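Q: I'm writing a short methods note and want an example of a predicted protein-small molecule complex. Could you take the sequence and the SMILES for S-adenosylmethionine and return the bound structure as tokens? Please keep the output block clean; save any remarks for afterwards.
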Amino acid sequence: MRQKKVKYATKEILEAYGVIIEPKRLEFKEKRAFLEIGSGKGSFISSLANDHPDDIFIAMEININVCYRIIEKKEAMKLDNLIIIHGDASFLNLYFDSDSIDGIYLNFSDPWPKKKHHKRRLTYPTFLKTYQNLLKDHGFLQFRTDHPTLFQESVEYIENHFKIIEINNHLEESRYMTEYEIKKRVLGPIYQLIGKVEKNVKESL
Ligand SMILES: C[S@@+](CC[C@H](N)C(=O)[O-])C[C@H]1O[C@@H](n2cnc3c(N)ncnc32)[C@H](O)[C@@H]1O
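A: Understood, no commentary inside the block.
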């Protein structure tokens, strides 16, 4: 479909471009599937999808106008392996089966600094339990931010649910950066954590 310039997107416009606008179950057959939650304008996930055409990539974004920016990239780069969901991470269970996802990316998630709002953080334990369930055994969670307090507190949440594989307090630039990362890099360090799910660890007798 020829891409139109749109200032304010609507659900109808999104749907016309194949965006998933209502919860439905997704199946990936034998393919590997990677999910980014809160994709923003989609630079990170579209670059990954472009470089790995045999895998499926899913961008989930709650903001409708931002979602449209992901469509622009999908269309321009002709990414058949990029699925876009206009939806809220609180309802992930309505889209994905248990043990169906290979990796989850959280990039520059909103920090929600006030304690009474911590539950909304995408790294909060309630979300982590859902990620744990949806990820396959040995699937990974990769979390990247420029926000030191959010990072430190998220490390504490995540280490209770995942095996920590990497903590990096000064992440180098890469080919896969979000719009926020490009903006924030000049202001200070970028932090990254990678954790893995271990579902079949037997307790030693
Ligand atoms: C600070 S922005 C970062 C955007 C992008 N990841 C980047 O690094 O450029 C956070 C994004 O997460 C989205 N978001 C926040 N809560 C969400 C939720 N519960 N489900 C889906 N998207 C969410 C927001 O709409 C926003 O686009």
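A: Remarks, as requested: The chain has one domain: 11-196. The two ends are 60 Å apart (CA to CA).
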